Amino acid sequence: MNIFRQLPLLFLWIVNLPVSAQSPLQLTSLDGKIKFSFRLTKKAPVYKIMYKGKTIIDDSELSLDFSGADGFGTSLQLLKPTFIEVDEYYDLIVGKAKTARNQYREVSIPLVEKGGKKRRINFVVRAFNDGLAFRYEFPEQQNWSSYTLTNESSTFNVNGDPTVRALHWDNYNNTHEGFYQKNKLSELKAGDLMDLPALLEFPGRVYMAITEANLRNYAGMYLVKKNGILTSQLSPLQGQTEIKVKASLPHRTPWRVMMMSDRIGALIESNILTNLNDPAQTKDWSWLKPGKTSFHWWNGDIVPDTTFAPGANFETNKYYIDFCARNGLAYHSVIGYGGFAWYQSDAPNYGAVGPRTDVTKTVPSLNIEEICNYAQKKGVDIHVWVHWKAIYPNLDKAFSQFQKWGIKGMMVDFLERDDQEMVNIQEEILKKAAEHKLFIQFHGAYKSTGLHRTYPNEFTREGALNYENNKWLKEGLSPDHDLDVAFTRLLAGATDYHLGGFRATPSKKFKTQYTRPLMIGTRAHMLAMYVVLESYLQMVADYPEAYEGQPGFEFLQKVPTTWDETVVPNAKVEKYITVARRKNTDWYVGTINNTEARNVNMALDFLPEGTYTLEWYTDAHDVDENPDHLIKQIKTVSHKDVLTLELAPGGGQVMHLQKQK
């Protein structure tokens, strides 16, 4: 054992630096590739970032506006900065890595007003080898106890004219589910709301993703282009447009994160977002069980013909529980039936609550405790779907009843906001759920921000236009869209995507089906999505007869949902991506392709030494007409081998590598 691996390494030094406008303060990443500089001007604090000797963010102003035309940014004095260097390891309860390394240099820059209230704000910057992050910290002070923020003007004066990939909105209240737009920075419309993460690609294949980490007690951030410069735009509190955040001191903002690399795969491998979140306060998470789950709403509530009347009843749920038990799926989800929830409600459909909605009482046809008891006997756990308004604000009452019934977690849906109030509601849900030993799966919600380090019971988030849309979109979701999600939304973390559709069809034959939805990408593409996408509660969303006896289902039965290590051997934006993830000594490798056929060589040099048995699922040669067809091969390989991946249009490949004894 390396005893130094177990302990944080921290260096602290305080230095006397010139603080005039002519002498920038500087911070460099440990590998020397990222260089940050900061200086004060009469107008505002200004920062600049260089990557490998080239300016990637040019002079960018920083300011904060408070209610009453009260700003913070002009006439500031810079006090003595504090530098620290940290190198530590920490374990994640759930994540793409079991142990993450948190290695950075930090500078805390105290800024004080020269006159007036003489308020103090610390501007804190951390430089990692794979990115840079900053935030504002409001320490406790005599003349300032609270604030009302109307605008955070964190600007990103991007150098050059990179390609920008992001979701665009005209409203803050949105699902965060849409098609990604690709534009040159110069082509972006002024004032459009750009969701995060946003990926910027510079000439020479240098990549920067802008997002946020540790979003707590603050408003969610978007980007808008103002005067040619990307500028932060916060989601306002409901019912008005001016006020974004209300807080008491001490307080701090989320981290504004710029992930950077000349290798796109490094952004997916990065643990920078969890590095920037706080450790979990609760020590005992032994009750938490990541895994895969049924989700019969997606397939249209399909049950076998003639055996029993389908509905919100024991028999319908028993059918899916038995399927989960036979095939090693950890969870069955109780949702309801035919558009109506499992709990008592006078609302017209899933998407609403009524004045007499009561999540602590089931519909007359369903006994949830009976279902939980039966599932437990079969080795399966139950989680439920709920509308967020059905459980909030009386969370203790709802969660106490859930725990009494034997429910283990829930999908919380239709949140569709990221203002400060909603951000706090979601954290309150996570905190109360943890107290009652329940996990959470957020739907209709904003992107991940690394909070699963603090609350490991946050298993996944939606925040992406996913396969549920094949139930109603005329053309369905294409493999090209899957690649867009992998190179943007995935950078933020866990992405719930309604995986598991086992009825692929050529795109020319696709048609909308609310029940038994069709898929456009091949079955091998679908299998690979379980490795490519990160989610600690992956759906197996089709119905039992769609899976059992079908080629490739055996892979879904065994693929994990949490990982010990993640690497990206191959990736080309828009074209293809290969993600390799390790669980114990086994490796799972998934590759998805866009709609163009190609061959790609993949080195297995990420494997440790030794020989491995490779179970390899590839598209059959006739997938242009029969996209469900697979070829399964068994080979012996080592880290010295290079494999040729023959990728069909819309296709994929998936591998399971087991170390030989």
What does this protein look like?
By secondary structure, the chain is mainly beta. It folds into two domains: 3-275, Beta-galactosidase, Chain A, domain 5 (Distorted Sandwich), CATH 2.70.98.10; 291-590, Alpha-Beta Barrel (TIM Barrel). Helix content is 15%, strand content 38%. It contains twelve helices and 42 strands. The strands form nine sheets. Strands 1, 7, 8, 9, 10, 11, 13, 15, 17, 18, 22 and 23 form a twelve-stranded antiparallel β-sheet that branches. Strands 2, 3, 4, 5, 6, 12, 19, 20 and 21 form a nine-stranded antiparallel β-sheet that branches. β8 (82-91) and β9 form a beta hairpin. α4 (314-327) packs parallel to α5. The longest helix is centred in the middle third of the chain and has 16 residues, at 420-435. It is globular, with a radius of gyration of 25 Å. 47% of the residues are buried. The model is unreliable at 1-21 (pLDDT under 50). This is Glycoside hydrolase family 97 protein. Monomer.
